[in-house]
Design goal:
This protein is α/β, with parallel strands linked by helices. Helices cover about 45% and strands about 15% of the residues. The strands form two sheets. The chain has an eight-stranded mixed β-sheet with strand order 3-2-1-4-5-6-7-8, sandwiched between helices. Strands 11-10-9-12-13-14 form a six-stranded parallel β-sheet. It binds uridine-5'-diphosphate-glucuronic acid.
Length: about 450
C-alpha cells in the first residue's frame, strides 16, 4: 500500500488524512505549528468539524496516522505527498501563493535526499498555471530533479464542504486528476480507485484544466446563490410572492437542480468569496473582464446591506435599541467566521448605533478588537432578552424549532428578520412583525 504524506492540516488536509488512514493507509500529516501537532496526535482537531475528532482519534490510536512538524520526514517516509496548504487572498483579491511556494520548496529539498520515485499532488485551490509555473519550478530548483522523469506531479482539486467534510471526502461525486505526465496520473488514479469504496467518475486532464475546474465549480455555486438573491430582491417587491416557493419551482427542472438556490444573507466562508475574487483577478490579468463574476460579488455584498436595511426599518431610531443575531458561523456545522455575513451585519448595525447581541451554538467569542462592542450571549434566551429585532443569520437546527411565542416571551418588541428562510411566514406573520428575505411584504 502506498504511504501518504499530507502537507497542511486545514479542512482539506485533515479530512484527506483521516479518510486515507480510515481505509488502512499509513499517513503522515505535517503542520508547522507545534501546538497543532501536539493536539492532532492527541486526537484533537484545531477546528470544529462534525465527526472529525472521533475519526482523528481512531486513526491516531490505530497508528495509521501521525502528525509531524518536519516536512522532510513526512516526505522521506512516504511515496506520495498532497499539498493542502492555504491559498488566502491578498488585499486586492489576488491569490497569495506564499504557503504553496514554501511547501513546494520543502518537499523539493526532501526529494533531493530521497532516492525512490515520489508523486507530488497539489490539492490546494490554485489559479491555472500555478502547478506548472510555481510548484514544478520550486520542486525542480530545490531538488535538482526533473518532473515527469524523476518525480511525478499532479493537480487534484478538492470539492468537500465544511460541515460535511468527512462524508464528502469519502463519497465525492467526481474526481478530477490533472496530470503533468501519464505516469503521475496513473499512480494517483490507481491510489484513488483503491481508496474509494464505490465507483466514482474520474476525469483526467491537463494541470491547468484541473485547476480551472475548481474555480469554475465554486464560481457556478456562487452564481446560483447570487441569482437566487437577485430573484429574492425582485420577489420582495411583489406582494404575495415568496422566493422559496419560486426557487422550489425553478429547481425541479433537472437542468437547474434545487441545490444552492436558497436566497439569504449571501455566501461567506473561506472558499466561495475568495475563489470568485481570485478568478476575477486572474481573468483580468489574462486581459478579460469577468462581468458575470463581478455581478455575483456585487449582489453578494448588497445582500448583507439588504438584511441590515430590513433590521433598521424595523427598529426605526437605532439609538438605545438592541438587535439579537441568531448565528455567527458562515454556515451551520462549522465554527468558521471567515467572510461570515454575521460579522458584516453586526458591524453595520453597531456603526448605526445599535446594541448587538449574538448567539451561536459553536462560536462563543470573537477575538477581534473591532468586535469588542458585539456581545456574545451564552444562550438563545440571553440573546433575545430585551431585543427590538432578531435577525436569523445562520440556519442552525437549534433555531429552526423556535416558535413565535419564544420571541414574544423574550423580546422587548417581537420582530424577526428571517435572513435564512427557516420559519413559516404564515405562522409568524400572524403573531409578530416578520420580514423574510425574498418574501413580498410592506417593508421594501
Ligand atoms: C464550498 C463548496 O460548496 C465546496 O464544494 C468547495 O469544495 C469548498 O467551497 C471549497 O472550495 O473548499 P463551503 O465553503 O464549505 O464549500 O460552503 P458552502 O456549503 O458552499 O456554503 C458557502 C456559503 O454559501 C455559505 O455562507 C452558505 O450559507 C451560502 N449558501 C449556500 C447560500 O447562501 N445559499 C445556498 O443555497 C447555499
Amino acid at each position: 500500500m502506498l504511504r501518504i504524506s499530507i502537507i497542511g492540516a486545514g479542512y482539506v488536509g485533515l479530512s484527506t488524512a483521516v479518510c486515507f488512514a480510515s481505509r488502512g493507509y499509513r499517513v503522515i500529516t505535517s503542520t508547522q505549528k507545534e501546538e497543532n501537532v501536539r493536539n492532532l496526535n492527541a486526537g484533537r482537531a484545531p477546528f470544529y468539524e462534525p465527526g472529525l475528532d472521533e475519526a482523528l482519534t481512531r486513526s491516531i490510536e490505530s497508528k495509521h496516522l501521525h502528525a509531524e512538524i518536519s516536512r522532510a520526514k513526512a516526505v522521506s517516509g512516504t511515496d506520495l505527498s498532497f499539498i493542502t496548504v492555504a491559498t488566502p487572498d491578498q488585499v486586492d483579491g489576488t491569490i497569495d501563493l506564499s504557503y504553496i511556494i514554501s511547501a513546494s520548496e520543502d518537499i523539493g529539498r526532501a526529494l533531493r535526499e530521497k532516492k525512490a520515485y515520489h508523486v507530488v499532488i497539489v490539492k490546494s485551490t490554485v489559479t491555472p498555471g500555478t502547478t506548472r509555473d510555481v510548484v514544478k519550478r520550486a520542486l525542480e530548483e530545490t531538488s535538482d530533479l526533473v518532473a515527469g522523469r524523476d518525480f511525478g506531479l499532479c493537480m487534484n482539486p478538492e470539492f468537500l464542504r465544511q460541515g460535511s467534510a468527512i462524508e464528502d471526502t469519502l463519497h465525492p461525486e467526481r474526481v478530477v486528476i490533472g496530470q503533468y505526465d501519464e505516469r503521475s496520473g496513473n499512480v494517483l488514479e490507481e491510489l484513488l480507485v483503491d481508496f474509494y469504496e464505490h465507483p466514482v467518475p474520474i476525469l483526467k486532464m491537463g494541470l491547468e484544466s484541473a485547476e480551472m475546474v475548481k474555480y469554475a465549480s465554486n464560481s457556478f455555486l456562487a452564481t446560483k446563490i447570487s441569482y437566487a438573491n437577485e430573484m429574492a430582491n425582485v420577489c420582495e417587491r411583489v406582494p404575495g410572492v415568496d422566493v422559496s416557493k419560486v426557487m422550489a419551482g425553478v429547481g425541479l427542472d433537472h437542468r437547474i437542480t434545487p441545490q444552492f438556490l436558497n436566497a439569504g444573507a449571501g455566501f461567506g466562508g473561506s472558499c466561495l468569496p475568495k475563489d470568485v475574487k481570485a478568478l476575477c483577478k486572474f481573468a483580468e490579468a489574462c486581459g478579460y473582464n469577468a462581468l458575470l463574476l463581478r455581478a455575483v460579488l456585487a449582489i453578494n455584498d448588497a445582500q448583507v446591506r439588504r438584511v441590515v436595511q430590513l433590521a433598521l426599518k424595523i427598529l426605526g431610531k437605532p439609538e438605545g435599541k438592541k438587535v439579537a443575531l441568531l448565528g455567527l458561523a458562515f454556515k451551520p456545522n462549522t465554527d468558521d467566521l471567515r467572510e461570515a455575513p454575521s460579522l458584516k451585519i453586526a458591524k453595520a448595525l453597531i456603526t448605526a448605533g445599535v446594541n448587538v447581541s449574538a448567539f451561536d451554538p459553536v462560536v462563543k467569542k470573537i477575538a477581534l478588537p473591532e468586535f469588542d462592542a458585539l456581545e456574545c450571549a451564552d444562550s438563545i434566551w440571553a440573546c433575545l432578552v430585551g431585543a427590538h429585532c432578531c435577525v436569523v443569520v445562520t440556519e442552525w437546527e437549534q433555531f429552526k424549532v423556535l416558535t413565535p411565542d419564544d420571541f414574544i416571551n423574550h423580546m422587548a418588541r417581537p420582530a424577526v428578520v428571517d435572513a435564512r428562510r427557516i420559519f413559516d411566514p404564515r405562522q409568524f406573520r400572524e403573531r409578530l412583525t416578520f420580514i423574510a428575505v425574498g418574501l413580498g411584504n410592506d417593508f421594501v
